[in-house]
Amino acid sequence: MPGSGLILGIESSCDETAAAIVERGARTVSSVVASQIATHARYGGVVPELASREHLRAIVPVVRAALAEAHLTLADLDAIAVTSGPGLAGALLVGITYAKALAFANHLPLIAVNHLEGHIHAVLLNERETEVASGTDVAGEKSVTLRNDAALALVVSGGHTHLYLARPAQGTWNYTLVGRTVDDAAGEAFDKVAKLLGLGYPGGPWIDALAKFGNPSAVPFSFAQIKTKAHPAASLRAPRRRKPRPSRASIRTFCFRFQESRRLCCATWSCMGCAPRQGRG
Asked: What pLDDT score does 240 carry?
Protein backbone atom coordinates (compact mmCIF):
# COMPACT_ATOMS: atom_id res chain seq x y z
CA MET A 1 0.00 0.00 0.00
CA PRO A 2 2.47 2.66 -1.13
CA GLY A 3 1.49 6.20 -0.22
CA SER A 4 -0.17 5.16 3.02
CA GLY A 5 2.42 6.95 5.18
CA LEU A 6 3.88 3.81 6.73
CA ILE A 7 7.39 4.27 8.13
CA LEU A 8 9.61 1.63 9.69
CA GLY A 9 11.67 3.06 12.54
CA ILE A 10 14.86 1.35 13.76
CA GLU A 11 16.53 2.22 17.08
CA SER A 12 19.90 0.90 18.31
CA SER A 13 21.47 3.82 20.16
CA CYS A 14 22.27 2.02 23.42
CA ASP A 15 21.18 -1.26 24.98
CA GLU A 16 17.84 -1.98 23.32
CA THR A 17 17.19 -3.07 19.75
CA ALA A 18 13.82 -1.71 18.68
CA ALA A 19 11.72 -1.50 15.55
CA ALA A 20 8.30 0.05 15.07
CA ILE A 21 5.97 0.88 12.22
CA VAL A 22 4.10 4.18 12.45
CA GLU A 23 1.31 5.38 10.17
CA ARG A 24 1.45 9.06 9.17
CA GLY A 25 3.17 9.94 12.45
CA ALA A 26 -0.12 9.45 14.28
CA ARG A 27 -0.60 5.74 14.93
CA THR A 28 1.75 3.01 16.09
CA VAL A 29 0.99 -0.06 14.00
CA SER A 30 3.56 -2.30 15.68
CA SER A 31 6.44 -2.03 18.14
CA VAL A 32 9.02 -4.65 19.11
CA VAL A 33 11.86 -4.21 21.61
CA ALA A 34 14.70 -6.58 22.46
CA SER A 35 16.22 -5.72 25.85
CA GLN A 36 19.84 -6.33 26.85
CA ILE A 37 19.38 -6.01 30.61
CA ALA A 38 20.42 -9.61 31.24
CA THR A 39 23.63 -9.08 29.24
CA HIS A 40 24.76 -5.95 31.08
CA ALA A 41 23.41 -6.70 34.58
CA ARG A 42 26.55 -8.57 35.66
CA TYR A 43 28.65 -5.46 34.93
CA GLY A 44 26.35 -2.92 36.60
CA GLY A 45 26.11 -0.83 33.41
CA VAL A 46 26.13 -0.93 29.63
CA VAL A 47 29.28 -2.34 28.03
CA PRO A 48 29.47 -0.75 24.55
CA GLU A 49 31.19 -3.69 22.82
CA LEU A 50 28.66 -6.19 24.18
CA ALA A 51 25.80 -3.86 23.24
CA SER A 52 26.98 -3.76 19.63
CA ARG A 53 27.20 -7.54 19.43
CA GLU A 54 23.70 -7.96 20.85
CA HIS A 55 22.35 -5.48 18.28
CA LEU A 56 23.92 -7.58 15.52
CA ARG A 57 22.13 -10.67 16.84
CA ALA A 58 18.76 -9.00 17.40
CA ILE A 59 18.23 -6.43 14.66
CA VAL A 60 17.07 -8.77 11.87
CA PRO A 61 14.57 -10.77 13.99
CA VAL A 62 13.30 -7.57 15.65
CA VAL A 63 12.56 -5.88 12.31
CA ARG A 64 10.94 -9.05 10.99
CA ALA A 65 8.81 -9.30 14.13
CA ALA A 66 7.68 -5.66 13.75
CA LEU A 67 6.62 -6.32 10.15
CA ALA A 68 4.86 -9.55 11.10
CA GLU A 69 3.02 -7.87 13.98
CA ALA A 70 1.75 -5.22 11.56
CA HIS A 71 0.91 -7.83 8.88
CA LEU A 72 3.05 -5.90 6.41
CA THR A 73 6.05 -6.44 4.15
CA LEU A 74 8.88 -4.13 3.17
CA ALA A 75 7.02 -3.44 -0.09
CA ASP A 76 4.22 -1.78 1.91
CA LEU A 77 6.51 0.85 3.44
CA ASP A 78 7.00 4.42 2.27
CA ALA A 79 10.24 5.12 4.13
CA ILE A 80 12.70 3.82 6.71
CA ALA A 81 13.83 5.91 9.68
CA VAL A 82 16.82 5.15 11.89
CA THR A 83 18.45 6.69 14.95
CA SER A 84 21.56 8.55 13.79
CA GLY A 85 22.73 9.80 17.20
CA PRO A 86 23.55 10.60 19.89
CA GLY A 87 24.41 7.19 21.30
CA LEU A 88 27.08 4.50 21.43
CA ALA A 89 29.09 4.60 18.19
CA GLY A 90 29.20 0.86 17.63
CA ALA A 91 25.55 0.37 18.50
CA LEU A 92 24.45 3.19 16.20
CA LEU A 93 26.56 1.76 13.38
CA VAL A 94 24.62 -1.52 13.48
CA GLY A 95 21.24 0.17 13.13
CA ILE A 96 22.36 2.71 10.52
CA THR A 97 24.09 0.12 8.34
CA TYR A 98 21.11 -2.22 8.41
CA ALA A 99 18.66 0.60 7.69
CA LYS A 100 20.79 1.81 4.77
CA ALA A 101 20.85 -1.69 3.31
CA LEU A 102 17.08 -2.08 3.63
CA ALA A 103 16.41 1.33 2.12
CA PHE A 104 18.80 0.74 -0.80
CA ALA A 105 17.50 -2.74 -1.59
CA ASN A 106 13.86 -1.66 -1.49
CA HIS A 107 14.28 1.77 -3.14
CA LEU A 108 12.96 3.59 -0.07
CA PRO A 109 13.95 6.97 1.34
CA LEU A 110 16.09 6.88 4.48
CA ILE A 111 15.33 9.31 7.32
CA ALA A 112 17.97 10.09 9.96
CA VAL A 113 16.43 10.72 13.38
CA ASN A 114 18.05 12.49 16.33
CA HIS A 115 17.72 10.28 19.38
CA LEU A 116 16.70 13.11 21.73
CA GLU A 117 14.21 14.57 19.24
CA GLY A 118 12.70 11.10 19.01
CA HIS A 119 12.06 11.14 22.76
CA ILE A 120 10.13 14.41 22.44
CA HIS A 121 7.99 13.32 19.51
CA ALA A 122 7.26 9.95 21.10
CA VAL A 123 5.37 11.87 23.79
CA LEU A 124 3.35 13.78 21.16
CA LEU A 125 2.56 10.54 19.35
CA ASN A 126 1.45 8.88 22.59
CA GLU A 127 -0.74 11.88 23.42
CA ARG A 128 -2.44 11.72 20.04
CA GLU A 129 -3.05 7.98 20.34
CA THR A 130 -4.45 8.42 23.85
CA GLU A 131 -6.88 11.08 22.65
CA VAL A 132 -8.08 8.94 19.77
CA ALA A 133 -8.50 5.88 22.00
CA SER A 134 -10.47 7.84 24.63
CA GLY A 135 -12.64 9.63 22.09
CA THR A 136 -11.52 13.09 23.30
CA ASP A 137 -9.83 13.97 20.01
CA VAL A 138 -12.57 16.10 18.50
CA ALA A 139 -11.63 16.91 14.90
CA GLY A 140 -7.99 16.71 15.97
CA GLU A 141 -8.26 20.01 17.87
CA LYS A 142 -5.97 19.16 20.78
CA SER A 143 -3.48 17.40 18.53
CA VAL A 144 -3.26 20.46 16.29
CA THR A 145 -2.63 22.58 19.38
CA LEU A 146 0.20 20.29 20.43
CA ARG A 147 1.76 20.50 16.99
CA ASN A 148 1.52 24.27 16.66
CA ASP A 149 2.43 25.49 20.14
CA ALA A 150 5.82 25.65 21.81
CA ALA A 151 6.47 22.92 24.37
CA LEU A 152 8.90 22.59 27.26
CA ALA A 153 10.23 19.04 27.05
CA LEU A 154 12.24 17.15 29.66
CA VAL A 155 14.26 14.33 28.11
CA VAL A 156 15.31 11.75 30.69
CA SER A 157 16.98 8.59 29.40
CA GLY A 158 19.86 6.46 30.60
CA GLY A 159 22.53 8.76 29.23
CA HIS A 160 20.74 12.08 28.78
CA THR A 161 18.91 14.52 31.05
CA HIS A 162 18.05 17.62 29.01
CA LEU A 163 15.42 20.35 29.11
CA TYR A 164 14.41 21.70 25.69
CA LEU A 165 12.08 24.43 24.50
CA ALA A 166 10.58 22.97 21.31
CA ARG A 167 8.97 25.28 18.77
CA PRO A 168 7.28 24.28 15.48
CA ALA A 169 8.45 26.36 12.51
CA GLN A 170 7.60 26.00 8.82
CA GLY A 171 6.82 22.32 8.92
CA THR A 172 9.75 21.40 11.16
CA TRP A 173 10.82 21.98 14.77
CA ASN A 174 13.45 24.19 16.38
CA TYR A 175 14.94 23.35 19.76
CA THR A 176 16.55 25.55 22.39
CA LEU A 177 18.56 23.78 25.07
CA VAL A 178 17.43 25.38 28.32
CA GLY A 179 19.36 23.20 30.77
CA ARG A 180 21.08 19.87 31.21
CA THR A 181 23.13 17.95 33.73
CA VAL A 182 26.82 18.75 33.43
CA ASP A 183 28.14 15.48 34.84
CA ASP A 184 26.09 12.28 34.93
CA ALA A 185 22.60 11.97 33.53
CA ALA A 186 19.94 10.89 36.02
CA GLY A 187 19.90 7.30 34.75
CA GLU A 188 23.68 6.98 34.94
CA ALA A 189 23.75 8.40 38.47
CA PHE A 190 21.25 5.82 39.70
CA ASP A 191 23.11 2.98 37.99
CA LYS A 192 26.47 4.02 39.47
CA VAL A 193 25.10 4.39 43.00
CA ALA A 194 23.34 1.03 42.76
CA LYS A 195 26.60 -0.58 41.63
CA LEU A 196 28.49 0.95 44.58
CA LEU A 197 25.87 -0.47 46.94
CA GLY A 198 26.01 -3.92 45.35
CA LEU A 199 22.48 -3.69 43.98
CA GLY A 200 21.23 -4.87 40.60
CA TYR A 201 21.08 -3.23 37.19
CA PRO A 202 19.36 -1.03 36.16
CA GLY A 203 19.74 0.87 39.42
CA GLY A 204 16.58 2.98 39.36
CA PRO A 205 14.03 0.25 40.24
CA TRP A 206 16.27 -1.11 43.02
CA ILE A 207 16.87 2.26 44.65
CA ASP A 208 13.20 3.22 44.30
CA ALA A 209 12.05 -0.01 45.95
CA LEU A 210 14.51 0.21 48.88
CA ALA A 211 14.11 3.96 49.42
CA LYS A 212 10.56 3.47 50.69
CA PHE A 213 11.96 1.82 53.82
CA GLY A 214 14.83 4.23 54.53
CA ASN A 215 15.35 6.55 57.50
CA PRO A 216 14.67 10.16 56.33
CA SER A 217 16.88 11.68 59.05
CA ALA A 218 20.08 9.76 58.25
CA VAL A 219 22.87 10.09 55.65
CA PRO A 220 22.53 13.79 54.75
CA PHE A 221 23.54 14.87 51.25
CA SER A 222 24.92 18.23 50.21
CA PHE A 223 23.38 19.79 47.10
CA ALA A 224 25.60 20.74 44.17
CA GLN A 225 25.28 24.37 43.12
CA ILE A 226 25.33 25.60 39.54
CA LYS A 227 28.72 27.33 39.89
CA THR A 228 30.53 24.52 41.67
CA LYS A 229 32.52 21.82 39.96
CA ALA A 230 30.07 19.08 39.16
CA HIS A 231 30.73 15.55 40.28
CA PRO A 232 28.66 12.99 42.22
CA ALA A 233 31.05 13.31 45.19
CA ALA A 234 28.48 12.89 47.94
CA SER A 235 27.11 9.71 46.39
CA LEU A 236 30.56 8.25 45.78
CA ARG A 237 32.03 9.08 49.19
CA ALA A 238 29.10 8.11 51.39
CA PRO A 239 29.17 4.34 50.70
CA ARG A 240 32.96 4.24 51.12
CA ARG A 241 32.77 5.85 54.55
CA ARG A 242 30.70 2.91 55.67
CA LYS A 243 31.72 -0.64 56.42
CA PRO A 244 32.55 -2.92 53.46
CA ARG A 245 29.35 -4.83 54.17
CA PRO A 246 26.70 -2.26 55.17
CA SER A 247 23.55 -3.44 56.86
CA ARG A 248 20.31 -3.75 54.97
CA ALA A 249 18.89 -0.88 56.97
CA SER A 250 21.76 1.42 56.05
CA ILE A 251 21.42 0.54 52.35
CA ARG A 252 17.70 1.32 52.46
CA THR A 253 18.39 4.62 54.19
CA PHE A 254 21.11 5.56 51.73
CA CYS A 255 18.77 4.80 48.82
CA PHE A 256 16.12 7.04 50.35
CA ARG A 257 18.50 9.95 50.87
CA PHE A 258 20.02 9.63 47.40
CA GLN A 259 16.64 9.50 45.67
CA GLU A 260 15.34 12.39 47.77
CA SER A 261 18.39 14.50 46.95
CA ARG A 262 17.85 13.93 43.22
CA ARG A 263 14.19 14.92 43.57
CA LEU A 264 14.92 18.08 45.54
CA CYS A 265 17.75 19.08 43.21
CA CYS A 266 15.49 18.85 40.18
CA ALA A 267 12.85 20.91 41.95
CA THR A 268 15.35 23.70 42.65
CA TRP A 269 17.12 23.62 39.25
CA SER A 270 20.39 22.34 40.68
CA CYS A 271 19.95 18.67 39.93
CA MET A 272 23.46 17.17 39.83
CA GLY A 273 24.91 20.52 38.87
CA CYS A 274 22.33 21.36 36.21
CA ALA A 275 23.47 24.48 34.36
CA PRO A 276 21.40 26.71 32.04
CA ARG A 277 22.68 26.65 28.45
CA GLN A 278 21.45 28.10 25.17
CA GLY A 279 21.66 26.87 21.59
CA ARG A 280 20.14 24.68 18.93
CA GLY A 281 19.78 20.99 19.69
From this structure: 52
